[in-house]
Description:
The chain is mainly alpha-helical. The chain folds into 2 domains: about 15-265, no CATH class; about 280-400, no CATH class. Helix content is about 55%, strand content about 0%. The protein is built from 13 helices and no strands. α2 (about 30-45) packs parallel to α3 (about 70-95). It starts with 12 loop residues before the first helix and ends with a helix. It comes from Gasterosteus aculeatus. Belongs to the MAK10 family. It holds the Pfam family TPR_NAA35. It is found in: Cytoplasm. This is N-alpha-acetyltransferase 35, NatC auxiliary subunit.
Amino acid sequence: MIGNQVNRKVLNFEQAIKEGAIKVKDLSLPELIGIIDTSFCCLITWLEGHSLAQTVFTCLYVHNPDLIEEPALKAFALGILKVCDIAREKVNKAAVFEEEDFQAMTYGFKMANNVTDLRVTGMLKDVEDELQRKVKGEQRDPEVELEHQQFLALFNRIKFTRLLLTALITFTKKETSSVGEAQKLVVQAADLLSAIQSSIQHGIQSQNDTTKGDEKELLCSSFPVNAADHPIMMGFEPLVNQRLLPPTFPRYAKIIKREDMVAYFSKLIERVKTVCDVINTTNLHGILDFFCEFSEQSPCVLSRSLLQTTFLIDNKKVFGTHLMQDMIKDALRYFVSPPVLSYKCCLLNNHQAKDYIDSFVTHCSRPFCSLIQIHGHNRARQRDKLGHILEEFATLQDEAEKV
């Protein structure tokens, strides 16, 4: 492989620790802030359709968080893995993604499955509380003001990670009330973004513009990486996973800039808040309009998936409580008001008529669920899929005329 011709030695996490190329304890505040910010950038790049091997797992710390002795970094590494794992689970469950939207392959990496979600959020909260004690107090000497700002910057990032993770965990619950809880959490997370934006400069910066040698080496690798597009800093190795990728990988991964990271999170949170509003829509026409309007914004795959899984829970019930058939019956009453569905009509007590209508509405459920799911796909793919579903609706129309 051409990747073997690079001048510098590509080290994995354990090798980097052994050779002293990476710290696992006593990291400075700027180092912690820089690593966290760059990890956020990698997370977003993954959500935009790139592989974990080229994004999140270029951070060596997430390869084996058990080796990290720094409490804040260990908690964050576990937190980011949990965020990835839950996001991947949600996207897979919703099944509204194409290969250009999302890559779910984990390449055999452990996603912190040996640690419970509750334990990780607890670790993040412990670190958060410790940092909060350090940032309290009004009287400060000018000499320690910078350190105070750095502690505050780290505190905001750890808290944001905890809130984001807790919100995603909340979305995995089947109770409708959990959606309101998730909305409160993302609102709290949104309040931290301006502070994160204003403290980006406190983190160590990647050596994109100065490390000419690294850039040359990266461009010689088996999957070319431009140093201007990939962070080169302590804890990150763009080439560490090159052997996991096929020789002709489909997409070139460009890690987003830190300045764009906050803007992306802000838009993501706004979309998640919109997703939470779907539970206030009770009729089928309103639901269809909601999904259409949401799709017009060209939302990311995660927010589209959260909307799908919030609407139809695991048991295939609307919001986990109503049968789709009942929602269709209500829509029929509202739209065409057929006598057989009128509570005052004697046909409602006729078992044969009731069986006919129940059978028809049951047949309607799958096409309507498919229609809603189609609106969860990206806009480019919807056109093809809508063509197929229209054939099913034509069949339903014929059946309706015979009922």
